[in-house]
Design a protein that fits this description.
460 residues, alpha/beta, Rossmann fold, four-stranded antiparallel sheet, 10 strands
């Protein structure tokens, strides 16, 4: 039973809606109508927990959903305007990724949305309707009882709309609840309608907070089983399982982005080639400064890639899927950062020896320089992730990352340079390397928690 009472939402100085209320029993279908800007999408995001409400209450089986946010995320499937698809991956790979985010143990049994014909194709080759069908197939990943659908029929042909109606009917027959924001009504029996135009600046209609709700005999269905807080299935996999699956997914995504690899390698090469022109051709000077110059090129290369950590996810709708996953968000974020670190380390590994030879660096320093990269690059990525989550949360331009990150990167450059200088002089590099390791040891557990908090706060 989902009960919403006196729900109001304000975004900045604008009142989006007020005094919305309804009560839905198992098997109910509520279709939300209204003009553009009437608050349909905002209401769905509030119900999903992606936005905070100004006033009112949302309860599930008489328990406020805020009392156990993790359990609420496990019971919700939210499909927004954006399909949350990655062009480089195939449909099968997207399904496997969504499975890992929902902590699901098995793929959906039935192809209700007809994706078998194109699920092995890269997403970039799919039509808008096929992408929508693939996105809707997320609904079948587990037994989440509450479906929140924002214009689900967008880009669907008649066959796709019929499949959606069949999926909704199947879900309702199991006792699930469906709430859909629509411009054109979904053909389904025993539906209820909520007119959002009645809940804006004007007082609600007569009849209290549920004055805009039209009931047409709510169906009686058997109760839908509530999923465990961690997702589907009786057993809960250890955190390392989800971390590994998401890490491999993100690493695969980076591997498919050939343009990213080309831009990283080309940018690094250009910086290394231009630095001798700025400093002069003296071999002794270049040899002495070579480790620092290579690290400077690595820093600039990281700034080129870190601004995409969460920006692209926010633009294609993936961020909403991450925020609603029952898998802990810090774990998901950490897997993204580790994959980003691995990508940068591989790119640097390919360019390290050519750059050292070009600058005439003493090759006995090369192992220590490589070790500083292994310790320093993940720290740079973790710091970049914190700045990236803040800029996304504040809806600011990613270019702000540069101003936020450079002061925090200076200690990494100092310790890395000190380790390489000590190696060149035959002294011990252990103290600066230990400091780099200490920074990484502090950032590794704390940075993902900070990022998760910033992303959730930004959505609220």
């Amino acid at each position: 039973m989902l009960h919403v009472s006196s729900l109001s939402c304000r975004r900045g100085s604008r009142l989006v809606f007020r005094e919305v209320g309804f009560c839905l029993a198992p098997g109910a279908l509520l279709q939300i109508t209204g003009a553009n800007g009437s608050g349909k999408s905002t209401l769905l995001r509030v119900l999903a927990g992606l936005l905070s409400r100004t006033d009112g209450a949302i309860t599930w089986n008489d328990q406020p959903v805020g009392n156990d946010a993790e359990a609420h995320r496990a019971r919700v499937h939210y499909i927004g305007h954006l399909d949350a698809l990655k062009p480089e991956l195939t449909g099968v790979e997207m399904l496997a990724y969504w499975q890992s985010l929902r902590a699901a143990s098995a793929a959906c049994a039935a192809d209700l949305f007809g994706i078998d014909a194109f699920k092995n194709k890269p997403v970039r080759f799919l039509s808008a309707g096929q992408k929508r069908r693939l996105a809707l197939s997320r609904l079948l990943q587990d037994d989440a009882p509450l479906w929140l659908l924002d214009e689900p029929t967008t880009a669907l042909d008649e066959n796709g709309q019929a499949r959606l109606a069949a999926a909704i009917a199947h879900h309702r027959a199991k006792g699930g609840i469906v709430i859909a924001a629509v411009h054109h009504m979904i053909d389904a029996p025993d539906t209820q309608v909520l007119a959002m135009d009645n809940f804006r600046t004007s007082p609600p209609l007569a009849g209290g907070t549920e004055g805009g709700l039209v009931n047409t005999s709510t169906p009686v269905s058997k109760p839908h089983p509530s999923p465990p807080a961690s997702g589907v299935g009786a057993s809960v996999a250890p955190p390392g399982h989800y971390l590994t699956r998401n890490f491999l997914h993100n690493l695969k995504l980076h591997a498919r982005q050939k343009g990213e690899w080309a831009s990283l390698l080309l940018f690094f090469a250009i910086v290394i080639l231009l630095l001798p022109f700025a400093l002069g051709p003296e071999p002794d000077l270049l040899r002495r400064l070579a480790p620092g110059l290579i690290w400077l090129a690595a820093l600039l290369m990281s700034l080129l890639s870190l601004d995409k950590l969460f920006v692209q996810d926010a633009r294609d709708g993936t961020l909403d899927v991450l925020l609603l996953s029952p898998v802990p968000l810090p774990l998901i974020v950490l897997s993204k950062l580790l994959a980003q670190s691995a990508t940068m380390l591989i790119a640097l590994g390919l360019m390290l020896l050519p750059a050292a030879l070009l600058l005439g660096m003493d090759l006995t320093v090369l192992p220590v320089l490589g070790l500083t990269f292994l310790l320093g690059i993940p720290s740079m990525v973790l710091l970049g992730g914190i700045a990236g989550s803040i800029t996304v949360a504040l809806h600011r331009n990613p270019a702000l990352l540069t101003l936020l990150l450079v002061p925090f990167y200076i200690p990494i450059l100092i310790f890395a340079g000190a380790a390489c200088d000590a190696a060149a002089l035959g002294a011990s590099s252990l103290p600066p390397l230990a400091l780099l390791g200490a920074m990484l040891a502090v950032l590794l557990p704390t940075a993902p928690i900070v990022m998760a908090a910033a992303l959730r706060q930004g959505q609220g």
